Amino acid sequence: MKRSFSIRWPLFGLALLVGLLAVACETSTPQNTFAPAGDVADKQRQLFLMAMWPAVAILVGVEVVLVLSLILFRRRRGRQLPKQVHGNTPLEVAWTLAPLLLLLGLAVPMVALIFELGRNPKAEALPIRVIGHQWVWEFQYPTFADGQGRPLTIIGTPENPPELHIPAGREIALEITSADVIHSFWVPRLGGKLDAIPGRVNRMWIVVNEPGVYPGQCAEFCGLLHADMRLKVVVHETEADFEGWVREMLSSGSGGGR
Ligand SMILES: [Cu+2]
């Protein structure tokens, strides 16, 4: 009888999938959460890896035992049915205690990290208001005002996304809100997403240690031009560089209130 099913196609599909999966290992991409450039993103990555590696070890361990059992103890001609067993107290106690201990062990550093990430920004942090609009971000620096006392304000357009300038090494207190619908502020290399909700201020702190430019985007579908609701975080090497930018913005009048 001719076989209509060939093992070649599933193998080919598997190889293709593994190849595609391997492409995701590239870490030099601009919005990669696995290439953190700030304290918050780095701690979030630690949290993820702390949960992932034990899970990978358990998956591999269980799968190896499963596959070996399937092969070694499969039904063979002439082989007797093995002795049938029901219940094994030491084994059952072990597989109840082991996950319990593992979870408790993971909970201690994880809960501590979650609290650290969720804390309020420090008093000396630089406050910046982030306001989501359909479909552009607005940034206000309440500590820097123009001649009329209006805060330095940066707002872009969907074609020309705004830049959020900050100094390296200093804690930044972001106060995130929205003027219309729900948006989500996300700069993957600096920290996780936080929703921008009308009528509510969500707070988040970030510290960026490496000067550079970090792209981000709205991460909550907010209407037709959602995909264009981008931003760039520009991190200045020193506080003096940053203040130079602030003065330039205020004197050119491009920054003052809308
Ligand atoms: Cu959006």
Task: List the SSEs and their pairings.
Layout: H1 8-23, H2 39-72, H3 89-118, E1 126-133, E2 136-145, E3 151-155, E4 163-167, E5 172-178, E6 183-187, E7 191-196, E8 202-206, E9 212-218, E10 230-236, H4 239-252
Bound molecules: copper (II) ion (CU).
Copper (II) ion binds at residues 183, 218, 220-222, 226, 229.
Tell me briefly what this model is:
The protein is 36% helix and 25% strand.
The CATH architecture of the domain at 126-252 would be: Sandwich
- Name the beta content range: 25-35%
Predict the CATH topology of the domain at 126-252.
Answer: Immunoglobulin-like
Query: Helical percent range?
Result: 25-40%
Structural classification: alpha+beta
The average pLDDT value, as a whole number, equals 90
Uncertain runs are: none
Rg over C-alpha atoms, rounded to the nearest angstrom: 27 Å
- Please provide the count of β strands: 10
CATH class of the domain at 126-252: Mainly Beta
Distinct helical segment count: 4
Shape: elongated
What's the CATH H-level homologous superfamily of the domain at 126-252? Cupredoxins -  blue copper proteins
Ligand identities: copper (II) ion
Instruction: Report strand order across the widest sheet.
Output: 3-2-1-5-8
Distance from first to last alpha carbon: 79 Å
Major sheet summary line: 5 strands, mixed
